Prior knowledge:
Shape: elongated
CATH topology: Four Helix Bundle (Hemerythrin (Met), subunit A)
CATH architecture: Up-down Bundle
Number of domains: 1
Amino acid sequence: MPRIEWSPSWSVGDDRLDHEHQSLVALINRLVEPEIRESNDPQVRRACVAEVILYAENHFRYEEDRMEQVKYPNLEGHRAGHMRFRRQISQLTLGAFEETPGLLSDLHTFLIAWLKNHILDEDQRYAAYLVAGPE
């Protein structure tokens, strides 16, 4: 399965957010590592999926706090995007607690598409506000 690779061009100008994005890339890639993908233990897969979701939740909180600090005008729209992600990931991961064939592959594909859109489109919209700082 293809892995996602971080690019410096994805930077939003905030070291912590960039680091969190890089960590999300690593967690998403972990879903398709052989020891996870080929594990006979469903607990291993569940733990990996849960780690991605928990990390994303913590990232969303910090990201929204930063946008609030810099008075980003589309904060509510960005929050709505986070809520859409929560709904979609919830639907996709129902199978993580069953033996659903292809779950990790489907989840990996979804997360790569989501992360690229999240960083390259949605997050780039607030990058200039982060660089400028609070008014």
